[in-house]
Amino acid sequence: MNEFLPVSIVMPAYNAAATIGAAIESVLAQTMPHWELIVVDDGSMDETAAIVQRYAQQDGRIHLWQQANAGGSAARNKGIGQARHEWLLFLDADDWLLPAHLEKMTAALRQDASLDAVHCGWHRVAPDGSWDQPHFAPDAPDLFPLFAERCVFQPNACVVRGALVTAVSGFDASLASCQDWDFWQRIARAGARFGAVREVLALYRTRPGSVSLKGVRLLRVGLRVINQAHRPDPTFADSPYPQGMPSTQAAGARIRYACWPFGLMLGSGEDPRPFLALLGDDSYPDLDPEHVAAFLFEAALLPHGMGTDGWDLLWPKIDGLVKAFLSALAKQVQAPDLVQPALRHLERLILEHSPRERPCTVGRTWAMAVEVSEPIVLVSPPRRTAVCRYEVLLEGAYLGAVALTKNATTECVVKEIAQAFAWPILGRYFAYHLFPKLEKAEGDASVSLWRGSLLLGTVPPAEPDAFWTHAWNEVGWQLFLQEVWRRSTWPSAYFYDQAMVERGELPTREIESNVTLALAEPTPDLLVNGAEAAITLTVAGEPVATVTLPTETGRIPAQRLRAALTQAADFDLCRAVVQHALLERPLTDPTSLLNRLCAGANSKGARP
Question: What pLDDT sits at residue 488?
Answer without folding.
Answer: 86
